[in-house]
Amino acid sequence: MSDTTDLRMPSVDPASWTCPAPLYDQSRVVMGHGGGGALSAELVRDVFAPAFGGETLAQLGDAAALSLGGLRLAFSTDSFVVRPLFFPGGSIGDLAVNGTVNDLAMSGARASYLSCGFILEEGVELDTVARVADALGAAARAAGVEVATGDTKVVEAGHGDGIFINTAGIGLIPAGVDLRPQRVVPGDVVIVSGPIGVHGVAIMSVREGLEFGVEIESDCAALGPLVDAMLAVTPDLHVLRDPTRGGLGAALNELATASGTGVVITEREVPIPPAVANACAVLGLDPMYVANEGKLVAFVPRRHADAVLEAMRAHPLGAEARIIGEAVADHPGMVVARTGLGGTRVVDLPIGEQLPRIC
Amino acid sequence: MSDTTDLRMPSVDPASWTCPAPLYDQSRVVMGHGGGGALSAELVRDVFAPAFGGETLAQLGDAAALSLGGLRLAFSTDSFVVRPLFFPGGSIGDLAVNGTVNDLAMSGARASYLSCGFILEEGVELDTVARVADALGAAARAAGVEVATGDTKVVEAGHGDGIFINTAGIGLIPAGVDLRPQRVVPGDVVIVSGPIGVHGVAIMSVREGLEFGVEIESDCAALGPLVDAMLAVTPDLHVLRDPTRGGLGAALNELATASGTGVVITEREVPIPPAVANACAVLGLDPMYVANEGKLVAFVPRRHADAVLEAMRAHPLGAEARIIGEAVADHPGMVVARTGLGGTRVVDLPIGEQLPRIC
């Protein structure tokens, strides 16, 4: 289909992306390699995947689905380097818990245990470390997960940035639940659990000292209970993804690519709070690519969509859930938005992250 | 016993340690907080343990022993900040695998899956990242563990130090195996699997450009097969520990404290290679506190000691295993060395780490 080909230009498919006139030294790591977009995908595809091999990593889910001793386990890790350490609505401690338990939740698993590794910079105040640890502990109790093992390293002043945290989590995947991008089929309904772009704008506003009339608080939250409510309707959801780095735009692209289906969303159905829209207009950001930390996007079989939506709306974390689009057989691997003017535009995979170090 | 009291002065028991004339700002993190000694223990006891709570963390094993879905799992994490990234005998990639699989091995578990989180500094060469990833992948294959899930973050130049890696690992604890410090009883025989101090001296010599006549290579290795050989003799080993940060001295102190028994070692039985002894003399280090990355110390019931030692010596990783001492009812919680001159000296818990960033 030549239409499709045209729509894909300029493509940022990581398999074909090249920069005709490099603006940076392509032999070195740039911020975008950590942004969850095309550069991150390239790093995984060209460096990590060949080096590590293995079937599980190749699934590229938010969490790995493992078989161990006859059990189906979800296993996931994230490092957290957010600046500042405390922000409206949360802290690096909250992110360190919720980021990892949400990755597990996207496989249907409730997190049972977390590991926690701190990399501290010499000179950071012990009181700050304690405040972060308290926030992490409180978030873990709220999410019903136990911090079971930990590690602390210290690097010299000027070789770190206050506090970095890594968490890894494990949990059981319930019987009958099989959430994978590969299960998406044309006709699936795309549901987002609530307003997008809040976390990234909250971080940016406090970092840059910007005010937008109202304080925007991060939506950082543990999504396990919402996922449980959805799975209670049917274990036959197809895929869940939490649109963190790279935002909803990156998440939809990853799922389209991995499933080999197209995705169409209706732009005006995507819930964007006015404060986020205003902030993005001022900052020159596209809310579709701004990170969330307490939202999920679901691809649900059409016959279950209304019941799942209803169950989501009955839960505080999904009160503003919306159907925003569907999976289609056309333009496989591509995400297209119907605009308010009746046209369409391609929602590409971002190259990097508009807002570095938001998690 | 007043003798014992005298021996303990000056004490660095983390429960009582205070610095009468602080040489540094005690409200801030110092390098020693990451050193695996008294300052690290203080940080865990006063900050992390109260914040996180939980039964499992309080066990303070190298790995947490968990119950999940009816299985007994070992779960452990370590971050790696070693400088330089490549050193004689290994790299940060080898350490990132062996450090975590060895922590699991100390609970008797063979590592099944690893997570891997990279924190990259903007500007580091992609070729360096690839070399580290290749080393990590090769070490994982050698250890028989699969890298199942990963994450990459990037921080701005000057806010990191090239490459930091966190790994977490999970594995099954075999039936009948219960390795815990609390199982140590007076009469247990203390066995070390080979010469100590090699890793720390290898790092220091390359970092400082020192030469000691012979190149000292890190002993970095995955100990799972050696542990399997020991458990094949009897599952009734009491405790295993890999003496990494803080060296053999810190490991013995941790086990003495956690078990509430005393430990006596015979100094001349502790295997210290001449090159390590020479380097330590030049650098003013005590080899008892220098880190190892491919050694273990075992407390074994006396009736099994000879057979376990024989099995260890039959394995390449334990060819130079030695009995170095025993657990005793006297001086509970304290480690004492019999010196070559027929006297005794206390082997205290080090306050910090003599060699920062050796893993």
From TrEMBL, chains A, B:
<comment type="similarity">
    <text>Belongs to the HypE family.</text>
</comment>
<dbReference type="Pfam" id="PF02769">
    <property type="entry name" value="AIRS_C"/>
</dbReference>
<protein>
    <submittedName>
        <fullName>Hydrogenase expression/formation protein HypE</fullName>
    </submittedName>
</protein>
<dbReference type="InterPro" id="IPR036921">
    <property type="entry name" value="PurM-like_N_sf"/>
</dbReference>
<dbReference type="InterPro" id="IPR036676">
    <property type="entry name" value="PurM-like_C_sf"/>
</dbReference>
<feature type="domain" description="PurM-like C-terminal">
    <location>
        <begin position="186"/>
        <end position="331"/>
    </location>
</feature>
<dbReference type="InterPro" id="IPR016188">
    <property type="entry name" value="PurM-like_N"/>
</dbReference>
<dbReference type="InterPro" id="IPR011854">
    <property type="entry name" value="HypE"/>
</dbReference>
<dbReference type="InterPro" id="IPR010918">
    <property type="entry name" value="PurM-like_C_dom"/>
</dbReference>
<dbReference type="Pfam" id="PF00586">
    <property type="entry name" value="AIRS"/>
</dbReference>
<feature type="domain" description="PurM-like N-terminal">
    <location>
        <begin position="62"/>
        <end position="173"/>
    </location>
</feature>
